[in-house]
Amino acid sequence: MTTKHTPLLILGSGPAGYTAAIYAARSLITPVLISGTQPGGQLTQTGDIENFPGFPEKISGMELMDRMRQQAENLGTLMIDETAITADLSQNPFVITLDSGDVYTCDALIIATGASAKWLNLPNEQPLRGFGVSACATCDGFFYRNKKVAVVGGGNTAVEEALYLANLASEVYLIHRRDELRSEKVMQERVKTHPKIRIIWDTVVEDYIGDKNKGGLTGLKLKNTKTAKESELAVDGCFIAIGYAPNTELFRGQLELNEDGFIITDKANLHTSVKGLFAAGDVQELFYRQAITAAAGGCRAALEAEKYLSALKK
Length: 314
What we know:
Layout: E1 3-11, H1 15-26, E2 32-34, E3 48-49, E4 59-60, H2 61-74, E5 78-80, E6 84-88, E7 94-98, E8 103-111, E9 115-117, H3 125-128, E10 133-134, H4 137-140, E11 148-152, H5 156-166, E12 171-175, H6 185-193, E13 197-200, E14 203-211, E15 216-224, E16 230-234, E17 237-240, E18 244-246, E19 277-279, H7 291-313
Parallel strand pairs: 1-2, 1-8, 2-5, 8-19, 10-17, 11-12, 11-17, 12-13
Antiparallel strand pairs: 3-4, 6-7, 7-8, 9-18, 14-15, 15-16
């Protein structure tokens, strides 16, 4: 076990974390970035991205994150591919312990730990996770080539998953509890007009049908939210896309969080309730949750952290 000190530590390696590292490195801070359990964050699970400025021919989420990481490294960021397991924010320097046992202390900290997929928490969900039930189409979609699959949700994530799976599966059912999608209009049109996608409105999944020891998922138990009519749908795979929960357990009780667990920050400068600590990206973003807004947040957090560190020196 070793203990090292850095002026600025960044937790998280999505668009917010990498952008914060890029801007901090350009300020000659030489930041340390802890990548976490999923280097590159949620975006590495996204297929083609066509709304990130500068890429008119689209770019995959994995490639975009790889480029951001390389850019941050080229500018001098020290990348540590480990996960923070404890954080002591009661004192400054802050103390962060990694899964290897190494400890980092820092004068300023940027939290960009993102969010993780939410689940339905149904009785048969945990046993069938990995056996027909998934939260990542780009991770597991390949296993359902020419098979019937369902996607649960109605936002951008659900629509993107459905469109991606339509390239692989024979049929895609998009199950939404309301009678209107919440995704971008252009994405809605693509789903509604796709010959392989059928939207099942006003419906929730009550449970999964199947046994992991007998071939895995075979179907879904459904219920109409307006009529209460119950039915079953035969599918080989089900992808849950109902949103994300912020990865803030490490900081609970030490930072001001809202009722959903998102870090509360000053809208102007992304300061948290702890002096010297900033947050950016999906860990504090309540509305837009886009790669470009996460990157913008990382930029702002880094610039504010640089101001804070400069004031400390003076």
